[in-house]
Amino acid sequence: MYDRKRMAEAWRTFVTTGVVDEDVVRPEVARSWRRCRAAGVNPWSSYFPDVDEALLKEKRDKYSHSLAANAPIMRIVMALLECNVSLMDQENFVFEFVSPLSYYPRTFGTYVLEEEVGTGNATVVSYEKKPVRVEGFEQYRAIAQTYSGVSAPFIDADGKYFGALNFNDPFNPLPPYALDMCAMGVDLANTLFLAKRSMNALLSTAEFFAPLVNLMDEPVLLLDMQGHVLLANAAMHPYVMGYERFSYGSQLVSAYLSKKTGADFLMKEAIKDGQPPAVVFKAPRKKEEHTLYLIRRRAIDLGNGLTYMVCVFKESAKVAKAAASRMGKPKVMGRATTRETVNYIGESEAWIKVDKLVRKIAPIKANVLILGETGTGKEVVARAIHAMSGRKGNFIAINCGAIPRDLFAAELFGYERGAFTGASESGAAGKIEAADGGTLFLDEIGEMPLDLQVGLLRVIQDQSVTRLGSTESRKFDVRFLAATNQDVRTLIDTQKFRADLYYRLSMVEIELPPLRRRGDDVRLLADYFNRDLSESLQLPYTPFSEEVMDALKGYTWRGNVRELRNIVERTLIMAGEGAKVTLSDLPAHVANAVSSGAKFMAPAKVMASLAEADAQERADQGTPADSPSDGDAAMRAERDRIIELVERYGGNISQAAKALGISRNTLYKRMGQLHLKVKVTVEVEESEG
Questions:
Q1: What are the boundaries of the region Disordered (predicted)?
Q2: pLDDT reading at 11 higher than 90
């Protein structure tokens, strides 16, 4: 999370000493700062390049179709966020720009290059080739440090960067959801670009913009210029309840407004800084009325003969609470005691972030890519998204790594009679058709054969599927969720995964934290599994002892939640019930985690590598030392490697040290620096008689 004070200090330290405070500065920002310093960028410079009118005209002519595809998205975003929105080509030349400001001279018609203007979202995105956010003092030049910005790249099927969409606010921080909106904007622009002559058909209703509008936390209403309701996001629904039951664009907003403030007031009343007009809405079947404050209103010409009025409101705390009660009590996704109550459990800060994102995106028909280590609960989260989406169809899961390659296409797309040897006489629907009206979950998507990725991409874009052996295309309504424990960027770089499919599937990305970073969630989950498994195993439920819970919490859980569940099940079978489980019932590597005072974390300032420590010890003993490695190993990776090896060798430090290529004493010293201790348990088996 951006901390303005700490970031300002980190920036001052870097521009004066060249040292990056890696506890504060994000890696992509640090990389950019170093490039700026190496290029000789003056952090106090106020230089901006001049507009090149001739080149601007040339670029706009060259990219006319791209302009047409992006312009509606850019105008809607400007109205929603009241920020500058720009479009760059692969050379970072800004050839389109829209702004709520009457005059803004800086970037339009210029190259936005890091070696000239320093760190910013528009410069970092071309290096990172992924959606990025740059805030305040993360900007390298002082003149830009009032800015907040996000960018999302346009990437082709081969992973090549060919431009970016940028949002920038010169005065205020962009909202947390701005980065998701930027990535969504790129996806919608790609959809329009590929539609070509059908572009205007896609833009014929405001529903096309629903994925953008639904990301907004504030109530948003889209009207036509006659005051008909076209689209409302979830936060707005309580105030225009039932509008979707009418035919599109037929219900007037006046039907929901009090006589105190009618449609003319909503659409024409002046909005003054700090004094948003109060718009009064009727309450359904009740006498009381509710006031929303109109903070933004802008008429947007889409360029296809349609003009929308975009209205953004602010709720008072009292109004928001009343609205929430009218919509019904939300399903709680926190602590639970029975498997029927929730799909997942977590109260840690890391998991609360996941839960908030799941709640936000569940009602939106946006494709989601779920990332995380094996066993972190990717399918559980996918099922939760489906359950909260309101979709009436089935949740269909398919493991892309478990299906033989020769059967994959038939399993996914379905087939007709005689499509291949051994095909059923009646043919069969594929998983996509089975998920019609619901959700298709593609687990281990990184294992999907490359040639089938092309077919899947087309299916997702067209929302239609053609069975093997058929020429008939079948329309469907499916939401796609995907998951992987692999680094998709690496797969793209090694040409094992198509970049265009990645961007199609990852409208929203959810990264699940490993269990070792979820704090007391280990206790919650252990207790939940204890209750759940005791019931299924027909055992009495009794809680685990504190000693057992401490051991479970102290262990690093390489297999995450899945491993925890397996160990809880094993101990219940061995002991008979939770209260009877002791450390001796746990695997030795788990029981050892309860070592007195052990902390599986490294002090922030310990940076020496094992090789350097070993070299120092040899020097102290008068033994020739090998040359130290060029770079320090990351502490977390180093710590995890030590834990892994000590566990592998059952606590035998000599064998672990040998595997690391260092002495036993060096390993003990390094473990002390990293606050790692090993507890060894000895079991004595008494002989009979």
A1: 612-634
A2: yes
